[in-house]
From TrEMBL:
This is Alpha 1,4-glycosyltransferase domain-containing protein. Residues 198-312 form the Alpha 1,4-glycosyltransferase domain. Belongs to the glycosyltransferase 32 family. Pfam families: Gb3_synth (PF04572), Gly_transf_sug (PF04488). The keyword Membrane applies. SUPFAM superfamilies: Nucleotide-diphospho-sugar transferases (SSF53448).
Length: 352
Protein backbone atom coordinates (compact mmCIF):
# COMPACT_ATOMS: atom_id res chain seq x y z
CA UNK A 1 0.00 0.00 0.00
CA UNK A 2 2.85 2.35 0.92
CA UNK A 3 4.61 1.68 -2.39
CA UNK A 4 1.41 2.38 -4.30
CA UNK A 5 1.03 5.69 -2.47
CA UNK A 6 4.65 6.63 -3.20
CA UNK A 7 4.14 5.79 -6.88
CA UNK A 8 0.99 7.89 -6.97
CA UNK A 9 2.69 10.89 -5.36
CA UNK A 10 5.65 10.56 -7.72
CA UNK A 11 3.31 10.59 -10.69
CA UNK A 12 1.57 13.71 -9.36
CA UNK A 13 4.94 15.43 -8.87
CA UNK A 14 6.01 14.53 -12.40
CA UNK A 15 2.79 15.92 -13.87
CA UNK A 16 3.22 19.11 -11.86
CA UNK A 17 6.75 19.55 -13.20
CA UNK A 18 5.57 19.06 -16.74
CA UNK A 19 2.75 21.55 -16.21
CA UNK A 20 4.99 24.31 -14.85
CA UNK A 21 7.57 23.68 -17.57
CA UNK A 22 4.93 24.12 -20.24
CA UNK A 23 3.61 27.20 -18.48
CA UNK A 24 7.08 28.78 -18.49
CA UNK A 25 7.37 28.10 -22.22
CA UNK A 26 3.98 29.65 -22.95
CA UNK A 27 4.93 32.83 -21.14
CA UNK A 28 7.88 33.50 -23.48
CA UNK A 29 6.81 32.40 -26.92
CA UNK A 30 3.97 32.77 -29.36
CA UNK A 31 3.88 31.11 -32.77
CA UNK A 32 6.42 28.41 -31.92
CA UNK A 33 4.29 27.42 -28.93
CA UNK A 34 1.10 26.72 -30.75
CA UNK A 35 -0.20 23.16 -30.31
CA UNK A 36 2.16 20.75 -32.12
CA UNK A 37 -0.51 19.55 -34.56
CA UNK A 38 -1.05 23.18 -35.63
CA UNK A 39 2.61 24.22 -35.67
CA UNK A 40 3.33 21.43 -38.15
CA UNK A 41 0.61 22.52 -40.58
CA UNK A 42 1.19 24.78 -43.57
CA UNK A 43 -1.21 26.83 -45.74
CA UNK A 44 -0.76 24.58 -48.77
CA UNK A 45 -1.78 21.48 -46.84
CA UNK A 46 -4.74 23.15 -45.15
CA UNK A 47 -6.13 25.18 -48.05
CA UNK A 48 -5.07 23.11 -51.03
CA UNK A 49 -8.51 21.54 -51.45
CA UNK A 50 -10.21 24.91 -51.88
CA UNK A 51 -12.56 24.59 -48.90
CA UNK A 52 -10.98 26.93 -46.34
CA UNK A 53 -12.03 30.28 -44.90
CA UNK A 54 -9.40 33.03 -45.11
CA UNK A 55 -8.84 36.23 -43.11
CA UNK A 56 -5.95 38.67 -43.55
CA UNK A 57 -4.26 41.28 -41.31
CA UNK A 58 -1.81 43.49 -43.26
CA UNK A 59 -0.78 45.71 -40.34
CA UNK A 60 1.81 44.65 -37.75
CA UNK A 61 -0.91 44.30 -35.12
CA UNK A 62 -0.59 41.10 -33.13
CA UNK A 63 -3.59 41.34 -30.82
CA UNK A 64 -6.90 40.97 -32.71
CA UNK A 65 -9.60 43.44 -31.72
CA UNK A 66 -12.89 42.14 -30.27
CA UNK A 67 -14.57 42.60 -33.66
CA UNK A 68 -11.82 40.68 -35.48
CA UNK A 69 -12.01 37.91 -32.88
CA UNK A 70 -15.77 37.81 -33.30
CA UNK A 71 -15.44 37.48 -37.09
CA UNK A 72 -12.91 34.65 -36.92
CA UNK A 73 -14.75 32.75 -34.21
CA UNK A 74 -18.11 33.08 -35.97
CA UNK A 75 -16.54 31.56 -39.09
CA UNK A 76 -15.05 28.72 -37.05
CA UNK A 77 -18.44 27.93 -35.56
CA UNK A 78 -20.32 28.28 -38.85
CA UNK A 79 -17.83 26.08 -40.73
CA UNK A 80 -16.71 23.55 -38.07
CA UNK A 81 -15.42 21.07 -40.67
CA UNK A 82 -13.35 23.64 -42.56
CA UNK A 83 -9.99 25.23 -41.71
CA UNK A 84 -10.24 28.91 -40.83
CA UNK A 85 -6.87 30.47 -41.64
CA UNK A 86 -5.80 33.90 -40.40
CA UNK A 87 -2.76 35.35 -42.22
CA UNK A 88 -1.03 38.04 -40.11
CA UNK A 89 1.68 40.37 -41.38
CA UNK A 90 3.16 40.81 -37.90
CA UNK A 91 3.59 37.09 -37.37
CA UNK A 92 6.52 34.90 -38.35
CA UNK A 93 7.82 31.51 -37.31
CA UNK A 94 10.35 33.03 -34.87
CA UNK A 95 8.03 35.58 -33.28
CA UNK A 96 8.61 35.77 -29.54
CA UNK A 97 6.98 38.04 -27.01
CA UNK A 98 8.67 39.80 -24.10
CA UNK A 99 8.00 37.91 -20.92
CA UNK A 100 5.73 40.67 -19.58
CA UNK A 101 3.47 40.76 -22.64
CA UNK A 102 0.13 39.01 -23.04
CA UNK A 103 -2.04 38.51 -26.12
CA UNK A 104 -5.25 36.94 -24.80
CA UNK A 105 -7.26 37.24 -28.03
CA UNK A 106 -4.46 35.72 -30.06
CA UNK A 107 -4.13 32.85 -27.62
CA UNK A 108 -7.85 32.19 -27.50
CA UNK A 109 -8.09 32.18 -31.29
CA UNK A 110 -5.24 29.71 -31.60
CA UNK A 111 -6.99 27.44 -29.09
CA UNK A 112 -9.94 26.83 -31.43
CA UNK A 113 -9.52 23.50 -33.19
CA UNK A 114 -10.14 24.66 -36.76
CA UNK A 115 -8.46 28.09 -36.52
CA UNK A 116 -4.90 28.37 -37.81
CA UNK A 117 -2.65 31.44 -37.75
CA UNK A 118 0.14 31.94 -40.29
CA UNK A 119 2.57 34.67 -41.32
CA UNK A 120 1.56 36.77 -44.32
CA UNK A 121 4.66 36.66 -46.54
CA UNK A 122 3.69 38.77 -49.55
CA UNK A 123 6.91 38.24 -51.45
CA UNK A 124 6.41 34.48 -51.40
CA UNK A 125 2.65 34.76 -51.89
CA UNK A 126 2.91 36.78 -55.10
CA UNK A 127 5.36 34.40 -56.77
CA UNK A 128 3.98 32.87 -59.97
CA UNK A 129 1.21 35.49 -60.17
CA UNK A 130 0.84 38.73 -62.18
CA UNK A 131 1.31 40.62 -58.89
CA UNK A 132 4.98 39.65 -58.55
CA UNK A 133 6.37 42.35 -60.85
CA UNK A 134 4.17 45.01 -59.24
CA UNK A 135 5.23 44.06 -55.71
CA UNK A 136 8.96 43.92 -56.45
CA UNK A 137 8.93 47.47 -57.83
CA UNK A 138 6.54 49.15 -55.38
CA UNK A 139 7.72 51.44 -52.58
CA UNK A 140 5.22 50.72 -49.85
CA UNK A 141 6.36 53.65 -47.69
CA UNK A 142 5.06 56.23 -50.17
CA UNK A 143 1.91 54.42 -51.28
CA UNK A 144 -1.52 55.77 -50.40
CA UNK A 145 -3.79 53.38 -48.53
CA UNK A 146 -1.06 50.73 -48.46
CA UNK A 147 -2.66 48.55 -45.77
CA UNK A 148 -5.82 48.29 -47.85
CA UNK A 149 -4.09 47.95 -51.23
CA UNK A 150 -1.76 45.21 -49.99
CA UNK A 151 -4.76 43.41 -48.51
CA UNK A 152 -6.62 43.69 -51.83
CA UNK A 153 -3.67 42.10 -53.61
CA UNK A 154 -3.10 39.39 -50.98
CA UNK A 155 -6.68 38.14 -50.96
CA UNK A 156 -6.67 37.75 -54.75
CA UNK A 157 -3.43 35.76 -54.70
CA UNK A 158 -4.42 33.53 -51.77
CA UNK A 159 -7.82 32.55 -53.15
CA UNK A 160 -6.38 32.09 -56.66
CA UNK A 161 -3.66 29.78 -55.32
CA UNK A 162 -5.65 27.80 -52.78
CA UNK A 163 -9.31 28.50 -53.43
CA UNK A 164 -11.86 28.90 -50.66
CA UNK A 165 -13.75 31.86 -49.19
CA UNK A 166 -12.14 35.17 -48.30
CA UNK A 167 -13.76 37.37 -45.62
CA UNK A 168 -12.82 40.77 -44.25
CA UNK A 169 -12.16 40.82 -40.52
CA UNK A 170 -15.43 42.67 -39.89
CA UNK A 171 -17.61 40.00 -41.53
CA UNK A 172 -19.73 38.02 -39.05
CA UNK A 173 -20.79 34.59 -40.32
CA UNK A 174 -24.38 33.45 -39.75
CA UNK A 175 -24.86 30.35 -41.91
CA UNK A 176 -22.74 28.49 -44.51
CA UNK A 177 -22.41 30.00 -47.97
CA UNK A 178 -23.61 27.33 -50.44
CA UNK A 179 -21.70 28.74 -53.46
CA UNK A 180 -18.21 27.85 -54.70
CA UNK A 181 -17.53 30.62 -57.24
CA UNK A 182 -19.16 33.88 -56.18
CA UNK A 183 -18.92 37.62 -55.66
CA UNK A 184 -20.98 39.60 -53.15
CA UNK A 185 -23.13 42.47 -54.43
CA UNK A 186 -23.27 45.71 -52.49
CA UNK A 187 -25.90 46.87 -54.99
CA UNK A 188 -27.29 45.70 -58.32
CA UNK A 189 -24.39 47.08 -60.29
CA UNK A 190 -21.53 47.11 -57.77
CA UNK A 191 -19.49 44.30 -56.25
CA UNK A 192 -17.76 44.05 -52.91
CA UNK A 193 -14.38 42.44 -52.42
CA UNK A 194 -14.96 42.01 -48.68
CA UNK A 195 -16.42 38.54 -49.25
CA UNK A 196 -15.82 36.28 -52.24
CA UNK A 197 -15.08 32.66 -52.98
CA UNK A 198 -13.61 30.63 -55.83
CA UNK A 199 -12.14 27.26 -56.59
CA UNK A 200 -8.34 27.21 -57.02
CA UNK A 201 -6.88 28.78 -60.17
CA UNK A 202 -10.14 30.29 -61.32
CA UNK A 203 -9.51 32.44 -64.43
CA UNK A 204 -11.61 35.31 -63.09
CA UNK A 205 -9.10 35.92 -60.28
CA UNK A 206 -6.13 35.65 -62.64
CA UNK A 207 -7.67 38.35 -64.81
CA UNK A 208 -8.36 40.41 -61.70
CA UNK A 209 -4.66 40.27 -60.78
CA UNK A 210 -3.68 41.31 -64.30
CA UNK A 211 -6.12 44.23 -64.16
CA UNK A 212 -4.83 45.13 -60.68
CA UNK A 213 -1.36 45.73 -62.14
CA UNK A 214 -2.49 47.29 -65.42
CA UNK A 215 -4.78 49.86 -63.76
CA UNK A 216 -2.95 50.32 -60.48
CA UNK A 217 -3.70 53.61 -58.70
CA UNK A 218 -3.57 53.58 -54.92
CA UNK A 219 -4.71 57.21 -54.70
CA UNK A 220 -8.25 56.22 -55.69
CA UNK A 221 -10.02 54.56 -52.78
CA UNK A 222 -11.24 51.10 -53.74
CA UNK A 223 -9.64 51.13 -57.17
CA UNK A 224 -7.78 47.89 -56.39
CA UNK A 225 -10.65 46.43 -54.40
CA UNK A 226 -14.41 46.66 -54.98
CA UNK A 227 -13.99 48.83 -58.09
CA UNK A 228 -11.62 46.22 -59.55
CA UNK A 229 -14.08 43.40 -58.88
CA UNK A 230 -16.89 45.46 -60.38
CA UNK A 231 -15.13 46.34 -63.62
CA UNK A 232 -13.98 42.75 -64.10
CA UNK A 233 -17.46 41.41 -63.39
CA UNK A 234 -18.86 43.76 -66.03
CA UNK A 235 -16.40 42.35 -68.54
CA UNK A 236 -17.55 38.82 -67.74
CA UNK A 237 -21.28 39.41 -67.38
CA UNK A 238 -24.05 41.66 -68.58
CA UNK A 239 -25.36 42.86 -65.24
CA UNK A 240 -28.97 43.63 -64.53
CA UNK A 241 -31.03 44.60 -61.51
CA UNK A 242 -31.74 41.85 -59.01
CA UNK A 243 -35.20 40.36 -58.96
CA UNK A 244 -36.54 40.04 -55.41
CA UNK A 245 -33.91 38.08 -53.42
CA UNK A 246 -32.63 35.94 -56.27
CA UNK A 247 -28.92 35.71 -57.08
CA UNK A 248 -27.55 36.49 -60.54
CA UNK A 249 -25.66 33.70 -62.31
CA UNK A 250 -23.27 34.22 -65.19
CA UNK A 251 -21.01 31.62 -66.82
CA UNK A 252 -19.51 29.68 -63.88
CA UNK A 253 -19.85 32.30 -61.15
CA UNK A 254 -22.65 33.79 -59.07
CA UNK A 255 -23.25 37.42 -58.16
CA UNK A 256 -25.03 37.16 -54.81
CA UNK A 257 -27.88 39.47 -53.87
CA UNK A 258 -27.03 42.38 -51.50
CA UNK A 259 -29.21 40.78 -48.83
CA UNK A 260 -26.70 37.93 -48.55
CA UNK A 261 -24.04 40.14 -46.91
CA UNK A 262 -25.23 43.77 -47.00
CA UNK A 263 -28.80 43.98 -45.67
CA UNK A 264 -27.60 47.10 -43.84
CA UNK A 265 -26.05 49.52 -46.34
CA UNK A 266 -22.94 51.55 -45.55
CA UNK A 267 -24.76 54.85 -44.81
CA UNK A 268 -26.58 52.99 -42.02
CA UNK A 269 -23.55 51.25 -40.52
CA UNK A 270 -24.25 52.70 -37.04
CA UNK A 271 -27.28 50.41 -36.75
CA UNK A 272 -24.88 47.59 -35.86
CA UNK A 273 -23.86 49.51 -32.72
CA UNK A 274 -27.38 50.43 -31.64
CA UNK A 275 -29.67 48.41 -29.39
CA UNK A 276 -30.84 45.37 -31.30
CA UNK A 277 -34.11 45.82 -33.16
CA UNK A 278 -35.51 42.30 -33.04
CA UNK A 279 -37.80 43.03 -35.98
CA UNK A 280 -34.69 43.22 -38.16
CA UNK A 281 -34.40 39.87 -39.97
CA UNK A 282 -31.33 38.32 -41.58
CA UNK A 283 -33.10 35.22 -42.88
CA UNK A 284 -31.72 35.84 -46.37
CA UNK A 285 -28.14 36.49 -45.21
CA UNK A 286 -25.11 34.21 -45.04
CA UNK A 287 -22.94 36.75 -43.21
CA UNK A 288 -22.98 40.43 -42.31
CA UNK A 289 -20.30 42.94 -43.30
CA UNK A 290 -20.13 45.59 -40.58
CA UNK A 291 -18.48 48.38 -42.63
CA UNK A 292 -15.76 48.89 -40.06
CA UNK A 293 -13.76 51.16 -42.39
CA UNK A 294 -16.61 53.67 -41.93
CA UNK A 295 -16.21 53.53 -38.16
CA UNK A 296 -14.11 56.64 -37.61
CA UNK A 297 -15.94 57.23 -34.34
CA UNK A 298 -14.22 54.26 -32.72
CA UNK A 299 -17.41 52.41 -31.86
CA UNK A 300 -16.74 48.95 -30.48
CA UNK A 301 -18.46 45.89 -29.09
CA UNK A 302 -19.55 46.68 -25.55
CA UNK A 303 -20.33 43.76 -23.30
CA UNK A 304 -23.86 43.92 -21.88
CA UNK A 305 -25.00 46.72 -24.21
CA UNK A 306 -27.52 44.53 -26.09
CA UNK A 307 -26.42 46.11 -29.37
CA UNK A 308 -26.91 44.31 -32.65
CA UNK A 309 -23.19 43.55 -33.02
CA UNK A 310 -23.02 42.04 -29.52
CA UNK A 311 -25.96 39.78 -30.31
CA UNK A 312 -24.37 38.71 -33.59
CA UNK A 313 -21.14 37.61 -31.94
CA UNK A 314 -20.84 34.16 -30.33
CA UNK A 315 -22.22 33.87 -26.80
CA UNK A 316 -20.27 35.43 -23.95
CA UNK A 317 -19.18 33.34 -20.98
CA UNK A 318 -19.41 35.63 -17.89
CA UNK A 319 -17.40 33.21 -15.78
CA UNK A 320 -14.45 33.23 -18.12
CA UNK A 321 -14.69 36.99 -18.58
CA UNK A 322 -14.29 37.46 -14.85
CA UNK A 323 -11.50 34.91 -14.76
CA UNK A 324 -9.50 36.73 -17.44
CA UNK A 325 -9.95 40.04 -15.66
CA UNK A 326 -8.84 38.67 -12.32
CA UNK A 327 -6.01 36.33 -13.28
CA UNK A 328 -3.74 35.97 -16.33
CA UNK A 329 -3.13 32.33 -15.37
CA UNK A 330 -6.78 31.61 -16.12
CA UNK A 331 -6.00 31.71 -19.84
CA UNK A 332 -3.55 28.83 -19.51
CA UNK A 333 -6.03 26.68 -17.61
CA UNK A 334 -8.72 27.50 -20.18
CA UNK A 335 -6.49 26.29 -23.03
CA UNK A 336 -6.01 23.01 -21.21
CA UNK A 337 -9.78 22.49 -20.95
CA UNK A 338 -10.40 19.69 -23.43
CA UNK A 339 -14.12 19.76 -22.77
CA UNK A 340 -14.73 23.16 -24.41
CA UNK A 341 -12.67 23.58 -27.53
CA UNK A 342 -14.58 26.21 -29.49
CA UNK A 343 -14.31 28.90 -26.86
CA UNK A 344 -16.06 32.29 -27.15
CA UNK A 345 -13.57 35.10 -27.71
CA UNK A 346 -15.19 38.32 -26.55
CA UNK A 347 -14.35 38.12 -22.87
CA UNK A 348 -11.94 41.04 -22.99
CA UNK A 349 -14.40 43.59 -24.37
CA UNK A 350 -14.98 46.99 -22.80
CA UNK A 351 -17.51 46.88 -20.00
CA UNK A 352 -18.59 50.51 -20.06
Amino acid sequence: MLKELQFFLSAILLLACVFFYQLSLKSSCLFSCLPPQKAQQDPEALLGHGHGIVFIETSERMEPTPLVSCAVESAAKTYPEKPVVFFMKGLNTTTRLPSNSTYPAFSLLSAIDNVFLFPLDMKRLFEDTPLRSWYTHINASVESNWLHVSSDASRLAIIWKYGGIYMDTDVISIRPIPEENFLAAQSSQYSSNGVFGFLPHHPFLWECMENFVEHYNSDIWGNQGPSLMTRMLRLWCKLRDFQEVSDFRCLNLSFLHPQRFYPISYPEWRRYYEVWDKDLSFNDSYALHLWNYMNNEGRTVVRGSNTLVENLCPSIDPGLYGCLVSSPLCLHFRQQDEGRRNVPLLYFMKTS
